[in-house]
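Title: Prediction job returns without error message
Component: structure pipeline
Severity: low
Priority: P3
Assignee: unassigned

Description:
Job completed but the reporter wants confirmation the result is attached to the right record. Sequence as submitted:
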Amino acid sequence: MLPNRVYTRFAYFRQLELSRLTRCVSTTSSYSPTARDGPSAGEISSATSYCTDLLRKYDSPSYTLLPFIPAAAQPAYLAIRAFNLETARIADNVSTPEIGALRLQFWRDNITRTFAGTPPKQPVSLLLAHALSDLRRRTDGAHGLSKSWFMRAIAAREQYLNNAPYPTVGDLEKYAESTYSTLLYLTLQVLPLNSITADHLASHIGKAAGIVAVLRGLPLLAFPPPPNHHSNSVGLGVVEQRRVRAQQGVATLPLDIMAEVGLREEDVLRKGAEAEGLRDAVFQVATRASDHLITARSMLQNLRKGEDVGHAFEHEDEEEHQYGLIHRSPQTASGKMAVQNAEVEQAFGVLMPAVGTGLWLDKLQKLDFDIFREELRRREWKLPWKAYFAYRRRMF
């Protein structure tokens, strides 16, 4: 069980942050010069409750990590994570991919209207509109969120709406980058923080989290639950549930890994955990996720020692990543390290999903990569205090 002293301290921390969130929402909604044309205070309060409840029910790790997000950014964090849940759960709630595509188009339209300042009367859109307005107010219009990142996440969900397999492990990483890493980029923008170093860390952590989410969803896709069945304790994996349209399930491991270890999908669907090669395939995919976490930890350690992070950010030149001149202009080595460490300090709360991802990978290893073990689908009771100490030490 969680030690009483740690649990009490964390519970107090959570209540304090939720109280600050309520005050933040109330204050900014009345202060914003566009409030009379945007969501009302009542609508924002209702939308906040909706998004909070959505996370509590379907994404408990993100709900647990809410207190580590700065108070001013918490409404946006809730909206971004709720958007992720709403779009991820579409495939689990429709009878055909065509209907799923229509619902994803609904979210494209919602995002377009929200960024245009005319959000629909939908809780996630209303809270996101409030967060956009508040970010402009806090920064005098100097910062905003990237609409294209929301669209990229929707496109990635649509690409695999019909449970199409990932051709390669590289394609799985691209999916994770377009979804889970993108959620972290958006949250960093809300702080606001435009940092190559923070984005680089977020990319690795998001890829690890996305790969883990797909692994956690594998048993539910191979043996899909009855319609409208949801577990309250699945955590990250619940966002990867997709209802299978046929009576037979699917195995969404990358095809190149399956071919390498001699794993056949039909064996997974007939034999489950006893399928020959399944543990080897899970091991290889989990190792890729672990590699990203190890890389992120190594980057942090290098920065703490005053060294360079060790490798370039592969997505630095993508259109959505825009950085100030301070990142482009020449700096002394000590000046550059000071800037990078300050940015990581500011971003650390956003990077906390690394803690839950690492805990799940550790548990998978202890269970000898048996992906069908029930323990892997339970809520991680260690996360609150592990996150608390990781945040205090600024190391995950």
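Comment from assignee: result matches the submitted record. The radius of gyration is 21 Å.
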